[in-house]
Amino acid sequence: MPELPEVQAIADYVDGRAAGLPIRRVDVASLAVLKTADPPYSAMAGRIVAGVHRIGKYLVISTDPAEAAPTGPDAERDVIHLVIHLSRAGWLRWSSNLSQTPPRPGGKGPIALRVHCGLPGEGFDVTEAGTQKRLAVWIVRDTAEVERIATLGPDVLSLTRDELAAILGGTGARIKTVLTDQRVISGVGNAYSDEILHTAQISPFATAKSLSDDQLDRLFVAVNAVLSDAIVRLEGAEVATMKGEKRSGLRVHARTGMPCPVCGDTVREVSFTDRAFQYCPTCQTGGKILADRRMSRLLK
Questions:
Q1: Within 13 A of 55's CA, how many CA atoms are on the CB side?
Q2: Of 247, 174, 257, 161, nearest in space to 208 by CA
Q3: Residue 64's CATH number
Q4: Of the residues 50, 73, 134, 161, which has the maximum number of CB atoms within 10 A of its CB?
Q5: 239 and 178 both lie in a single domain
Q6: Spatial contact of 267 and 278, defined as CB atoms under 8 Å apart
Q7: How far is CA 296 from CA 179, 205, 272, 290, 293, in A?
Q8: Does residue 289 lie within any of the structural domains?
């Protein structure tokens, strides 16, 4: 799943290529991905890409009308946002040779949405692999209209050490759960939470409110170090290479059975119904192996 560093990198990549360009048209191959109907997706045609940014793990493409915007202290911008949540298997593919033939609606291919902007052939496809279709797109005048955005917790990179401590001190949930709950803290998913907890030397199942001051210090440093390092590594990368760049920087996530790069112990895995995560027993759990069975109760 694309997380904060990848979504930030995609936003920067698309902004650098599309900002200031007109959107010529939008093709929708899967109506199921559209979660709003007003404004219609056809309203995007002719508008200008004003900028691209992220909110949490959501990609936001903001557009202005083609005509000059009103000026003055009381002027209101006629902004329409294209909001994309790539979910677990979504991605964005930029092309300078984009097909002018609209993708077939309801087809079995990975393309869900195609945005033509700039010169003919320029633009991007929003794709989703696999059979579980969770990718979602909203077209709104205010990003707060997207309920999932309206209920997001603070961006993880915006938090001070004391703000992070206050959030964790208010919940008895496991630290792994807290870090990945977008309603509590936004931006971190399964992969980077594994990396953050490994760097901070904290068990995934430590109780959030029970962390010591030393653990909180290590966690705060790890959050910023892991995510900032990933952002720097992805800076300037082509969208097509970002997945590989992400994998190359992971030390424990998706490395089950491999040696921990810090201590050499074997990286272990805990599996659930629809996902798994990894950790190092020596670095994080005092050598104890967490129970590995679906829907298991977890060892402390």
A1: 20
A2: 174
A3: 3.20.190.10
A4: 50
A5: yes
A6: yes
A7: 20, 12, 8, 9, 5
A8: no
Distance CA 163, CA 174 (A): 18
At 272, is the secondary structure helix, strand, or coil? coil
Task: Based on the fold, state whether residues 215 and 161 are members of the same structural domain.
Answer: yes
* Greatest mean pLDDT among 89-103, 107-121, 184-198, 228-242: 184-198
Check residue 275 and give its pLDDT.
81
- At 70, the pLDDT band (50, 70, 90 cuts) reads low
- Report the C-alpha gap between 300 and 203 in whole angstroms: 8
Closest CA to 175 of 161, 156, 194: 194
Domain span at 122: 4-150
131 within some domain? yes
Task: Give SS3 for 158.
Answer: helix
Whole-angstrom CA distances from 288 to 64, 83, 203, 280, 282 are 56, 43, 10, 9, 8
Over the stretch 3-59, which tens digit does the pLDDT of each residue have?
999 999 999 999 999 999 999 999 999 889 999 999 999 999 999 999 999 999 999
Q: Cβ contacts of residue 90 below 8 Å, gap of 6+?
A: 2, 84, 112, 126, 127, 128, 134, 135
Is 205 in the same domain as 124?
A: no
DSSP classification of residue 56: T
Six-digit token string for 232: 């720097």
What is the CATH number for 211? 1.10.8.50
Dmax (CA) of the chain:
65
